From TrEMBL:
Residues that bind (6R)-10-formyltetrahydrofolate: 72, 110
Keywords per UniProt: Purine biosynthesis, Transferase
Stretches assigned to the Formyl transferase N-terminal domain: 6-187
SUPFAM superfamilies reported in the protein's UniProt record: Formyltransferase
Gene designation per UniProt: purN
Catalytic residues identified in the record: 112 (proton donor)
Protein name: Phosphoribosylglycinamide formyltransferase
Catalyzed reaction equations: N(1)-(5-phospho-beta-D-ribosyl)glycinamide + (6R)-10-formyltetrahydrofolate = N(2)-formyl-N(1)-(5-phospho-beta-D-ribosyl)glycinamide + (6S)-5,6,7,8-tetrahydrofolate + H(+)
Pathway: Purine metabolism; IMP biosynthesis via de novo pathway; N(2)-formyl-N(1)-(5-phospho-D-ribosyl)glycinamide from N(1)-(5-phospho-D-ribosyl)glycinamide (10-formyl THF route): step 1/1
Length: 215
């Protein structure tokens, strides 16, 4: 019986994806556990959820670092290492990591509420999809790429049909339901060695490969 993958979740928002991941981790046999929740906020819904589920929380507002986001990111890397996190996961994190974070952790999962590469690069993916009248949108779990926002090898995607009477809230709610399914699945795939990175592409392997020596 191998140890479970140690996950650190980075958050800024309501925390519904964090809840989905914590619920998955509570499922018998799930190959990962959330050992730390990090936030750029002092307070947010996701922090409350982590505390209510007895997960260690660390708040790293940039103000505590004199506004120096590089210094904040160094503290974030230190905290992830101290907690022996193997896989960081961004679940509604509203900041962009500096290159140092990606150097320390080449594999970081992120969830985004659109079918990337459409509607990347901002916080308004659902609004923007409605504004141009797409008939299908969805969500994406991808690995972060250094120096790019909402870009990097795509791990999983789910399509969501846009209804004629959708508004931002109704469409976001259906996208969220798919995110709650996809994100834990992506963590499971990573933890069981089923993601193979090949340049700009991630292949989902049918069976686990032997994971390379940990960084
Ligand atoms: C999600 O829609 C995610 O795709 C985006 O931020 C939102 C976070 O929602 N990056 P929650 O905080 O997990 O409820």
């Amino acid at each position: 019986m191998s140890a479970r993958t140690r996950v650190g979740v980075v958050v800024s928002g309501a925390g519904s994806n964090l809840t989905a991941l914590l619920d998955a981790c509570d499922t018998p046999g799930f190959p990962a556990e959330v050992v730390l929740v990090l936030s750029n906020r002092r307070q947010c819904g996701a922090i409350d959820i982590a505390r209510s589920r007895a997960v260690e929380v660390l708040s790293l507002p940039v103000g505590d670092f004199g506004g120096d986001s590089l210094a904040r990111d160094r503290a974030l890397v230190d905290a992830l290492r101290a907690a022996r996190v193997e896989l960081p996961v961004c679940a509604g994190y509203n900041r962009v990591f500096s290159a140092d974070v990606l150097t320390a952790f080449p594999d970081i999962l992120n969830v985004h509420p659109s079918l990337l590469p459409a509607f990347g690069g901002g916080m308004n993916a659902v609004e923007d999809a409605l504004a141009v009248g797409v008939k299908v949108t969805g969500c994406t779990v991808h690995l972060l790429a250094s120096g790019a926002v909402d870009a990097g090898p795509i791990v999983l995607q789910a399509a969501v049909a846009v209804h004629e009477d959708d508004d931002v809230d109704t469409l976001r709610a259906r996208i969220h339901e798919q995110e709650w399914r996809l994100l834990p699945h992506a963590v499971e795939l990573w933890a069981t060695g089923r993601l193979q990175r090949d340049g700009t592409v991630v292949h989902v392997l049918p069976s686990p490969r032997v994971r390379e020596q940990a960084r």
